Amino acid sequence: MDRVTVTPEAVAVIGKLKALHGALAFHQSGGCCDGSAPMCFPAGEFKTGAQDIYLGRIEDCDFFIGAAQFEYWSHTQLIIDVVPGRGSGFSLEAPEGVRFLTRSRVFTDAEAAELEAAGPPPRGAD
């Protein structure tokens, strides 16, 4: 069961960004700038630590979320989408006239049990 997934529209934007910038990484923001928007950075530019939870990979890009945000969203699958418009943050897609957006769906009881059995996801410092 994936904790994070991506829409076909976002796949296209990620592909374009990878062609322009090389390897990428994402962090589900919970702070200033774009509020709770997923932020896209060149891989290695955003330093993760013990307070960052590794949710998985989307399009061969690591995806992290802050521990406090994870507590709010742990019962949902994050679905990374893209919409027209510019965000106000530092995410790489801003100059492209689009912004990433997180949608979510609640895990089913069976999915939640599967995730519980797998144990907690690793932290960025692991």
From TrEMBL:
Pfam families: DUF779. InterPro entries: DUF779. It comes from the Bacteria. This is Acetaldehyde dehydrogenase. It comes from Skermanella stibiiresistens SB22. The lineage of its organism: Bacteria, Pseudomonadati, Pseudomonadota, Alphaproteobacteria, Rhodospirillales.
